[in-house]
Amino acid sequence: MKSVLLAALLATALPAFAQAEAQALSACVGAKSTGQDRKDLAKWLFTAMAAHPDMKPLSTVSDPVAEASSKTAGELFTRLLSDACATEAKAALKAGGPMAIQVGFQTLGQLAMQELMTDKDVAASMGRLDKYLDRQKLATLGQ
Prior knowledge:
Elements: H1 2-13, H2 16-32, H3 35-49, H4 63-84, H5 86-96, H6 98-117, H7 120-127, H8 135-139
């Protein structure tokens, strides 16, 4: 939900003429990335988030692991922007600047999350939330 809202906000920040180019880049990045690419991106995001003071107690990410993940993600971004989707990246950059590139990569982030969420263990872990929801309070939302 947050990623959809963020993507919508970012898209509205672009000039209208740049949205088509950002969407073309987004489509290309989605089509030219693999499941492994998406997992690599998710790993990089995880290692970055693990550096936050509130997250550090939940995970131990060593410097070599974080460095390797950053290297892999850097190579992924470079490949997608300068090789696989170079035409779309140039058009997006020209039309909307760096924000168009960022919007174009929102899809890759969403696909990375989908890649992880389809795992049965992740789904089971996410399902734990269900037992802590207050159904009576939530039921009042529709009234």
